[in-house]
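Section 3.1: Structural characterization of target chains.
Under the original work plan, the team committed to producing a structural model for every single-chain target entering the pipeline before any wet-lab resources were allocated. The record below documents one such target. The sequence was received from the expression subgroup and is listed exactly as submitted; it comprises 149 residues.
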Amino acid sequence: MFEHLPQAIVSLSAASNIAKSMLELRDFTQINSKVIELQREIISAQDKVLSSQREQDLLIAKIQELEKECTRLKDWSVEKEDYLLKEIASGVFAYIEKNYEGSLQSANKLCANCFEQRTKSILQYESLGKLLMCPRCSSMIAGIKYLNV
């Protein structure tokens, strides 16, 4: 991250040495030459510092992105504890709220596929209530005959 800083320090040190040597000069041509050399070293140091700042800005953005992802994952881990995977029909599974009381037919059922991908997607009835479909991943469950659980 700070790989450019030592180079910038070397450039500034060289600039300092050039400035010191300029004090001893009396010839305008030599002074002008040293001024140009001094400007080159200062520009080089500025470039290195700016490169370091850009790298730091990229790292800060990446850290903020990772912190947001961490928060999202923590929130999901808490929320997913409110649901249980239940067999709603023979060989058909969906996530249902732990505290739900009532028939499975009227319960909100979350698509197991989407739930495992950390997304809540409520299965919707299609075709006069004979077909459950996930609006997100398009999973379909036909001919549901609910278990008495």
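DSSP finds three helices and six strands in the chain.
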